[in-house]
Design a protein that fits this description.
- Helix content is about 5%, strand content about 45%.
- By secondary structure, the chain is mainly beta.
- The protein has two domains: about 110 residues, Immunoglobulin-like (Sandwich); about 280 residues, 7 Propeller (Methylamine Dehydrogenase, Chain H), CATH 2.130.10.
- Strands 1-28-27-26 form a four-stranded antiparallel beta sheet, with no helix packed on it. A four-stranded antiparallel beta sheet has the order 2-3-4-5, with no helix packed on it. A four-stranded antiparallel beta sheet has the order 6-7-8-9, with no helix packed on it.
- The protein is elongated, with a radius of gyration of 23 Å.
- The chain starts with a helix and ends with a strand.
Length: about 400
Amino acid sequence: MRIKLLLCLSLILMSLNFASSQIWIKTDSLPVGIVETIAINPKNGKILVGIYGEGVFRSDINGSNWTNASMGLPDKLVKVIRYNSEGTAFAGLNGTGIFKSTDDGQNWVASNNGLTNKNVLDVYVSQDGNIYAGTWFYGSVFVSTDKGQQWTDLKLDNKDVHSVIKAKDGSILAGTEYNGLYKTNDNGKNWKSVGFSTNNIYDMVVDDNGKLYLCAKDGFYVSNDNGENWTSQNNGIGTTVIRAITISKAKSIFAGTSAGVYRSIDYGQNWKEYSDGLDIQNKNIFSLNSGIDDIIYAGTANGVYKTQIADSYDELNSNNFRLIISPIPFNNSVKFKLTIENSGTYTLIIYDIFGRKIDNLFDGYLSVGTHQFEWQPQNLSFGSYFFRIINNNQSTQGKLLYMP
């Protein structure tokens, strides 16, 4: 009885570390205006946001203490900011072109040589370091192979390009307004339409396996063949307008819609709303990004919100084993990957916050190596749950967050 009481108290104290059911919290004050873009330096985690009509603002610490970072920009019509792998930021402005900064927005310099259309809507930095710019008003796609020193027109003539991306096979895709999606396999010598005819394409991302994701005015789409064919995947999200996509390190996909944020942990096949904590008047999402710590940031018409916990995995280590739990938080199921150095009897138990046993995932002998277990809650409510792994009278416990 005493052991059970101590376990119960321990679990309750752990649960207090997470503030009720609220996922999102608003960051420090920013000027009112549409947060068109959120960029995160992969070197140091500093954040730049572009607010259309207000300029660029920087946070050095996870969305706290925003300061103006527009020095050197000719105006405040910022549409997009992207970092390359070296930590150089590229800002695209509507009407004045592209500017770059090597000091997280403290100073900006023009980077427009060869950029004959300066109405920039998107910038994309590919893994090989090439930079692509999408423009509008008799727009096209431009490429720079020298970190923005010189730009070359890829001749997608007279299209308003909202999104550009490079597929795993090296082809370039350009999502347009009212003209659908175009693709070139030869660096702009030839372009072809690959669907969506009169649709608006707002954003595209590619994952580590080369799978492409696209959001449009009528929903979410996936391609497994470098953009040649697309499948609509809107189960749970509907055909609401989706303006932004980001992928976390835990491989969750987040979609920013006109009705809040949605999350998928199965490559977009199923979606769950993920909006708790967003102001009811700020559920129209214009931009998303995942920080180097896997905190998710969302841009609205009135500031930036961030998740209170990382969308990631947890890892526990003891003298005998290593345990990886993912994803955290989860909605349908959570996986436990257990790697053990010494064979023996192991027990893996799930509890609620009151110390009541909910499920016994495993109780038996395991040999040296890696073993995987999966928990799929049945008829349980949203909230915190806990797991306990026992081996040779030694136990380790951790917290789970269930968001059905």
